[in-house]
Amino acid sequence: MHMWRFIILSIIVILSTTIISALRYKIIVNSKKEKISFAGAFSVHTITQFSAIIVPFKMGALVTKPTITKLVSDIKISKSFSMMLFEQIIDISWQMVSLPFLLIFIGEQTILNDIWIELIVIGIFILMILFIYKKRAGFISFLWRFKKFLPKKIRKFGKKHNMTETKINEMAEMPFKYFSSKKLLFLVAIPTVLIIILNPLVLLFLLPIFSVNLGYIPVFLILWTSCIIGRFSGIPSGFVSRDLSMAAFLIIFGVDPILSTQITLLYRTITLAMVITLGIITSLHIGFHKIISSNN
Rounded distance, CA 101 to CA 225, Å? Predict the structure, then answer.
């Protein structure tokens, strides 16, 4: 009973952040004078997360999110694609900016004590962000050369919707126009901050099961650093890369290696089970047949 109480608390947090994420997407959609119900936004988010288990680099979102959005709200693919990109830019931006600082704080426990190393790490990441932003057209052109290496399903989807390099460049420009709306940025920032604050609680609630006592701040550092590393690894759902990082960071903060492995496995099992369960339930609600046929 003691163990299940903490697992249930973790599940409640996962459901809460999923609901908040769906509300954030609904805010973005509504800001463009389009309509989507909360149930529709929830379905879009959960099915997209489900697809991310299989497809690397969040590429599943490129196909799944616009497609499911069109299914539940009849919004044009091109418009929902720009909404999805805006949401991705928000997440990638704060994660890229925060990763060096997270590594520095964790590094204070081990090796990153040289201020010059810290400044170089931060500088490199900031320069990367600025470079990609300024040269985004050239960046897309560079990536376009490797389109033949994309999964067949994504290439088929692109061909169906006439996704030329020019059209993708035009669609890529649209999300940046969203940043001109201070009201939208404020409304999107609220759920984003809540997600950032709440997500570490999933891990924090699992620690007492193993009689491990860590405060919120260490857990925040461990959770987000490993999640961001997992995301940028390109592996679907950050498998292995996120898990190894989390276990290693737990050890850095004084947790026994065996317990660190057990905690990481339990965290992965619960979060993965929730993603699969919610993804399947919402897919059944919409209809697997509709989803599959819309991608063909």
Answer: 9
